[in-house]
Design a protein that fits this description.
The structure holds two protein chains of two kinds. In chain A, about 35% of the residues lie in helices and about 20% in strands. Chain A is of the alpha/beta class. Chain A folds into two domains: about 230 residues, Nucleoside phosphorylase domain (Rossmann fold, 3-Layer(aba) Sandwich); about 70 residues. Chain A has a five-stranded mixed β-barrel. Chain A has a two-stranded antiparallel sheet with strand order 1-2. In chain A, helix 2 runs parallel beside helix 3 and helix 7 runs parallel beside helix 9. Chain A starts with a strand and ends with a helix. Chain B is of the alpha/beta class. Chain B has one domain: Alpha-Beta Horseshoe (pyruvate-formate lyase- activating enzyme), CATH 3.80.30.30. In chain B, about 35% of the residues lie in helices and about 20% in strands. Chain B is built from twelve helices and 18 strands. Chain B has an eight-stranded mixed beta sheet with strand order 4-5-9-10-11-13-14-18. A five-stranded mixed beta sheet of chain B has the order 2-1-3-8-6, with no helix packed on it. In chain B, helix 10 packs parallel to helix 12. Classes of the chains: A alpha/beta, B alpha/beta. The interface between A and B is large, with 37 and 43 residues.
Chain lengths: ~300, ~325
């Protein structure tokens, strides 16, 4: 699919590029509420603003391995922007997701970086626990309370923001929860009100913590690559869907059989050739034929160690 | 152990406090119920297995459950209970990876509730009946002993209840707890064993076969009744020769009279469970073919292949042990 790719609005080189959007081998999708939070990441990952149908600004690296959406404030906008990014990136299975933003904390110092190990939505009481798989931040995690309106700081080691629950609830529908993480920078505390936040300060804090954020991002990217590899269908699946029409159920069964066939196949014909050589004309003839072929390979499947 | 999830109600439990003191650098996350973290929709067992967390919880509801009908080692009635869910090892054939979407290690710390439930079961059984209690159904009974103290706690309990037979099932070599005390007649220490090649290829993270045999020898010499658990049977070239070798290795370290029981059974999975396992590891040859769907919905090897494997193994076992100590779980 060809899409138009733009540099970020206002950039010096405001040129339009055309590029082939091949599916990346791994992808990290980042969600930030405001442009000052996003800017250090846009710069670091060399993201370019893309022109699409999305109502929110979406940025993407040339190789498609990194992308970012600026959602606006609040959990509904965060959830909505996450969805937009997912669609814009081609609804890839196995994308990793990272919500990056600022949060308040009663006691922690301004600029502290905290990975999130628990998210609670204050309005609904619903909770999520992002699995703690990353090495980065394994000793730097806090809980997060997502509220609709700023108020008092929660007790204990709990951050407070306005986006986390909206992001996590939606992103964890697109990818397995291990691939969905949040990282927050403390922007205000009991002694420093968010109202006193100076322009440009958020960007400075994020730039100061960029090494850790990038390290976590790299780990997520590796996980995304592994998950995409796991989810990847045999190449010939696409070819078969072009040649024959399958129902949804048949497609699921076909993919399952093609994967099994791929594990056992060494030098045999492709499934397409095999079907054509056996005179298949209709999709409904294919599944029984391939099943029969697999059954005949029972002996080949017996473990050779 | 980097991350501990702890149910709010048991934060002050002595076993929880003990663990927290021991792993004082671990990140602690409080939850209300372990089900908020464990086996939640949208998790991936394979990726969690890379760095599983521990979940400390309290077991509620039915603490002790009847085993499936074919599950037994000669007792009139059979039950199982699970103080842990999941296992530190990563055996590719293990049904746990198809049963749970989480690879986290769940530890139910309320041992006393399990013991009360066991007493209630025993109270409902005639005194002359032997009642089997299996502790390694949803995890390994001994692998985490150094952390859980499970055997340390339950052995004295079963010592006072000779009507009850406890099975400790393990792939570990973590047998110190058994070597420091007199053996109990009613506790069977059951070692899960596979031929060397199968163990090397599929039992990721588990002690090597030779190490398990050495641990088994020590336990047997201490006088503990030994169980041999030879499941699942996995089809392979030279199946008979591989098992012949395995049995030779086993009976090089054991005398037949030290063996309480042998169980074996073929690979069988409900179809949905099999699909989950194979989709976790699409590159895995073990799941690629060779299975058939039976009328009852189970995926198994074709009946003839399965029968041949079972018959061959039984014949080999009968060369060492009387028939009454051999239990075919498929029958």
């Amino acid at each position: 699919m060809a899409v138009e790719v733009y540099l970020a609005a206002g950039e010096k080189n405001d040129i339009v590029m055309q590029q082939d959007r091949a599916k990346p081998e791994a992808c990290l999708a980042m969600v930030a509420a405001l442009l000052p939070e996003a800017r250090p990441l846009i710069d670091h990952f060399r993201l370019q603003k893309i022109k699409g149908r999305s109502p929110v600004p979406i940025f993407r690296s040339e190789d498609g391995r990194h992308c970012l959406v600026v959602s606006g404030m609040g959990k509904i906008l965060s959830a909505s922007a996450t969805t937009s990014l997912y669609h814009e990136m081609g609804e890839l299975s196995g994308m990793a997701w990272l919500n990056i933003g600022i949060a308040g904390h009663r006691t922690r110092e301004l600029g502290d970086l905290r990975w999130v190990n628990k998210i609670e939505d204050a309005a609904s009481g619903q909770k999520w626990y992002p699995p703690r798989l990353l090495k980065t931040g394994s000793r730097q995690a806090s809980a997060l309370l997502t509220v609709d309106q700023a108020g008092e700081y929660p007790a204990g080691d709990t951050l407070v923001d306005m986006e986390g629950s909206g992001f996590y609830q939606i992103a964890s529908r697109f990818s397995s929860r291990e691939l969905v993480q949040c990282v927050k920078l403390v922007s205000d505390n009991a002694e420093n009100s968010w109202k006193d936040l100076k322009k440009g300060q958020v960007g400075l804090w994020i730039r100061a913590q960029l090494d850790d954020i990038v390290a976590g991002s790299e780990e997520l990217l590796v996980l995304s690559g592994d998950e995409m590899k796991r989810c990847r269908l045999p190449r010939e699946a696409e070819q078969m869907l072009d040649l024959w029409h399958f129902t949804q159920t048949e497609k699921y069964q076909l993919f399952k059989i093609l994967r099994q066939r791929q594990v056992l196949a060494s030098e045999q014909d492709t499934a397409v050739l095999f079907c054509q050589n056996n005179g298949v004309r209709l999709a409904k003839e294919i599944l029984p034929l391939l099943r029969q072929e697999l059954a005949g390979k029972g002996d080949a499947a017996i473990i050779k160690i | 152990m980097d991350t501990l999830y702890i149910e709010r109600e048991i934060v002050a439990h002595e076993r929880v406090r003990g663990l927290c003191e021991r792993f004082d650098k671990a990140e602690r996350i409080i939850c209300d119920r372990y089900g908020e973290v464990f086996n939640v929709k949208g998790q991936n067992f394979r990726w969690q297995k890379r760095k599983p967390s521990w979940i400390l919880a309290e077991k509620h509801g039915r603490m002790v459950l009847p085993t499936p009908p074919a599950y037994g080692i000669g007792c009139e009635k059979n039950f199982y209970f699970s103080h842990i869910l999941n296992c530190p090892y990563d055996c590719r054939y293990c049904f746990l990876q198809g049963m749970y979407s989480s690879a986290h290690q769940v530890w139910f710390v309320n041992y006393e509730s399990f013991q009360q439930a066991i007493d209630e079961v025993l109270a409902g059984c005639p005194a002359k009946e032997k009642v089997g209690f299996f502790s390694g159904y949803d995890g390994d009974s001994l692998a985490l002993e150094n952390v859980t103290g499970f055997a340390e706690n339950f052995l004295p309990f079963f010592a006072k209840r000779p009507q009850a037979i406890l099975e400790l099932r393990t792939k570990s070599v973590n047998v110190g707890v058994l070597l420091n005390r007199p053996a109990l007649e009613n506790v069977v220490v059951a070692f899960s064993l596979s031929p060397q090649q199968i163990a090397s290829a599929f039992e990721h993270g588990a002690p090597k076969l030779q190490q398990r045999l050495e641990a088994m020898k020590k336990v047997a010499e201490q006088g503990w009744p030994i169980g041999l658990r030879l499941d699942p049977l996995i089809a392979q070239p030279n199946f008979t020769e591989e098992y012949e070798t395995l049995l030779t290795q086993i009976f090089n370290v054991l005398r037949p009279e030290q063996v309480h029981s042998v169980t074996f059974g073929p690979m069988r999975f409900p179809e949905a469970m099999f699909d989950r396992m194979s989709s976790l590891y699409p590159e895995e040859r073990l799941f690629a073919a060779g299975f058939e769907r039976r009328q009852d919905g189970l995926l198994t090897y074709p009946p003839e292949r399965e029968r041949k494997m079972r018959d061959a193994l039984r014949l080999l076992l009968e060369g060492y042990l009387p028939d009454k100590r051999i239990f075919d779980c498929a029958e």
